Amino acid sequence: MAETSKHLIIVGGGPAGAMLSFLMARMGVKTTLIERHKDLSREFRGEGLSPSGVEVFRQAGLLDALSKLPASEVKSARFFIGDQDVLSLPMAEILPAAAMQRLMPQGPVLEMLIEKAKQFDCFTYLDGARVLDLAYDNGRVNGVVLDHEGQKKELNADYVISAEGRNSILRRKLGLDWVGENQSYDIVWTKLKKPDFVTEGEVFSFLQAERFGIGLPSAEGKIQLGVVIPKGSYKSFRNDDEPWQEKLAAGLPCQFAEYILANPDKLDKPILLDVISGSLSNWSKPGICFMGDAAHPMSPVGAQGINLALRDAIVAANLFGPALQDAAANTDAFDHAAKQFEAERRKEIEPAQKQQNTAPSQFAMASKFGWLIKFISNGFLKMLMKIFVSGKAVDKLIYGAVPVKLTFKP
Ligand SMILES: Cc1cc2nc3c(=O)[nH]c(=O)nc-3n(C[C@H](O)[C@H](O)[C@H](O)COP(=O)(O)OP(=O)(O)OC[C@H]3O[C@@H](n4cnc5c(N)ncnc54)[C@H](O)[C@@H]3O)c2cc1C
Questions:
Q1: How far is the CA of 14 from the centre of ligand 1 (A)?
Q2: In this predicted model, what pLDDT tens digit does every residue of 61-86 receive, in sequence order?
Q3: N or C terminus: which one in the chain shows less Cβ crowding within 10 Å?
Q4: Other Cβ atoms within 10 Å of 99 Cβ, number
Q5: Among 293, 345, 355, 398, which residue has the most ligand 1 atoms within 8 Å of its CB, making it the best to mutate?
Q6: From the CB of 300, is ligand 1 less than 6 Å away?
Q7: Exposed e or buried b per residue across 395-407, where buried means at least 16 C-beta atoms within 10 angstroms of its C-beta
Q8: In a domain, 18, yes or no
Q9: Are 123 and 225 members of one domain?
Q10: 193 shares a domain with 156
Q11: Domain of residue 246, residue span
Q12: What is this structure's pTM?
């Protein structure tokens, strides 16, 4: 039987790969999604979905499906400086409802996207399959080499999109490096049962002498706690001589520190987020294109990673979809789409990274002068906060810096 479209392999079932799989399958493109995990909840990842990311689900016609999944609403924000609880604000007083972030564990979101893609016969999901390398035909990528249930095999396709995240093996196989600003910090993430003194839906941040951290509400009655550590110091953080929970507690306001020291077993295993901000100097090679964190790992500032990965999927569907739908298309069409994709997405990614990269100097300034806050009235602080969040720069992080519009209508 003659093929009705070209065959696309997508490597990685994160937000970028899962959303693109659904969009491509709905366009009738023969799509194979390869994901190394069987259980998508096993990997700890960002949970912050901004309006710019929710908009992608709206355009994809998946808003109803998204709204049925576990989510935590951010209801208030609390700020600690040292041990002092300096400010607590209902979010509704600083941000309009439409600008609020949803905190959603990625596992159920990804499962929903993959289930939706499975409704189309042209879609194949290969889970528990780890991509090891690329396959070539005359110097052009024409597939991948993978390990599926202990069997090493080659799978060929007309085009490959790598959405394997920041540890992309295919990037390394091609000798591609990220170019960007060096980051001075990493983040240790963990989850713990919400202590009673943290109210439902509360986001809190704390600034200690040299430490900055954030706590976010997470589904299942937990909080997701992230603490900044100096770049490259995770090994000594995990050094077994002193329990890591004690090191974590040393950088927290006393209420939190006491809770952690009293309940060290209630913390999930810590995860290192190696903070990188940059992008590949070239997002594609003949036969393959990179997207999401694999193309442009984001720093965690403003929780941009998921949202930009999802927005990549819309632009990739617009550009690669029509070329791949055409069973007679020649390879130049795909390589051209890849160049257009990179040019279009750089317009949003580069300014976002530039803005994220101003955060460390702002934290340094805040830790120097933060103690002054106790002399400022709550009303004045609220006003400052409102001015800050209503700025154009913050708007871009919330709603997206460039319009992204899905052109395909089912
Ligand atoms: C610990 C941690 C904390 C984070 N915190 C935040 C946050 O608070 N806010 C925020 O916005 N972002 C955060 N991020 C980043 C955010 O999760 C990413 O930006 C976002 O998930 C990127 O989506 P993606 O689809 O490009 O890649 P990923 O989500 O990384 O997905 C890549 C997928 O590819 C699969 N894969 C990888 N290699 C292979 C292979 N060889 N073969 C087959 N499959 C493979 C992986 O299993 C994974 O499912 C965090 C990331 C980490 C690691």
A1: 6
A2: 999 999 999 998 888 888 887 777 87
A3: N
A4: 16
A5: 293
A6: yes
A7: ebbbebbeebebe
A8: yes
A9: no
A10: no
A11: 76-101+184-273
A12: 0.92
12 ligand 1 Cβ < 6 A? yes
**Shortest-distance atom of ligand 1 to CA 298:** 19
Does the structure show a pLDDT above 80 at 343? yes
Instruction: Kindly give the residue spans of alpha helices, DSSP state H, lying in 79-214.
Output: 106-118, 169-173
Which stretch of DSSP H or E encloses residue 247? helix 244-249
Whose C-alpha lies nearest to ligand 1, atom 52?
45
pLDDT at 362: 65
Judgement on whether residues 114 and 199 belong to the same structural domain of the protein: no
- Span 187-215, mean pLDDT? 86
DSSP 8-state class, residue 232: T
Same domain membership, residue 118 and residue 139 = yes
Residue range 83-127, pLDDT digits in tens: 778 778 888 877 777 677 788 999 999 999 999 999 999 999 999
Q: What is the mean pLDDT of residues 265-284?
A: 92
- Is the beta carbon of 349 within 6 A of some atom in ligand 1? no
Residue type, 197: F
- Among 209, 223, 213, 164, residue whose Cα is nearest residue 185: 213
Confidence of residue 315 (pLDDT cuts 50, 70, 90): very high
CATH number at residue 211: 3.30.9.10
Is the Cβ atom of 304 under 6 angstroms away from ligand 1?
A: yes
Q: Which of 245, 273, 301 delimits the end of a domain?
A: 273
Within this chain, do residues 216 and 309 fall inside the same structural domain, yes or no? Answer: no
DSSP-derived secondary structure letter, 3: -
Give yes or no: residues 65 and 157 share one domain. yes
